[in-house]
Design a protein that fits this description.
Aconitase, domain 3, five-stranded parallel β-sheet, alpha/beta, 16 helices
Length: 381
Amino acid sequence: MELTRDEESALKGEQGKILQMAYRILVATGEATDAQRLVPIEWAHLSGVNYNTIGDAGEEFLSDVSRDARVRVKTTLNPMGFDIDSVSRYGLDENFVSKQLSIRNSYESMGVIPSFSCIPYEIFDIPAGGTQVAFAESNAAIHANSYDNLRTNKESAFSALASAIVGKSPQFQQDSANITIRMNIENPDELAYGMLGFFAGKVGDTSVNVHGLGKMDKRQTKAMCGGMGTSGTCAKFIFGEGDSECENIDFDEKEMQNIHDELNTCEKGDLITLGSPQLGLDELADIKDRLKGRSFQKRCMIFTPRTVKEQATKIGYTAELKRAGCEILSDCCTCLSPLINKDEVDAVTTNSIKGAFYLKNSNGVDVNLKPLSQIIKDETR
């Protein structure tokens, strides 16, 4: 990599241990991805927040680094393990709570905005097109590259934190897609788009062309980004057929059924989870409208950013959702949360491919996978 004199100085440790550590991470990342140089960023979004994800080693690292490190650009934060307002209600392990709060405090002391959201693109203003950012949350990185006209590597927790501290990232590298996936599903819902993303993540390299999508709503675009981010390293959808040399693959009912069979492990759940990625205001409004006065007949957990919950409360959405039996949780999401414990829950119903993957493989519970329309039809009265 080509480094400036100032960057070389920091890498040698002449500007302190924190900057030296950050530059070492960025240079190693850049060399591994054939980046030519480091470029300025305007925004970093960090993962590595949930104690279930980073454990004691991560908590101790952040506690140590936060004594001297400060972020240089706007830096936002992924969900943690619980809603800070609901800790006592769920009877969580005291050690988990203590370590999770330590992680929260470490990030805040570095100047990170405690957004605790995996959908920063919905709750913050999007920079000008072509802006370089550093997003570690997989669905957010894919959304930024594909829909927001931003440029980001698919960062790790460490590289995104290093970028936030330095204010730079390895220059975005995006190869042309050599695969075109044709959507061949009639009237696809959000579950179909999530499966398309999951399929694309498996077959794509750094990017993939997609064709025949039709008009998509926010739920469907987020489902597609969440699905891709779950299954592979691919970081971008390119909308169109690509050039004539691209390999063409159909995503049809057979491929969709294969993914459903992989992730769906039971016919009904003990509880319902909605929000992986977290739900935005439009999605909360849609659920409220679909209910039409009906109520869920089993526990239903809805995950949404705190800023969205506050907006929804002001305009009456949360009151109606609570009337329908929903628990509305902020700061956390379906994935890797101790709020969904296999000792208490055998199976979860969800419309999220990302949620299904992590519930099955990390939380150790069975999954009943179906679209929102079917969930409301089956689970309310």
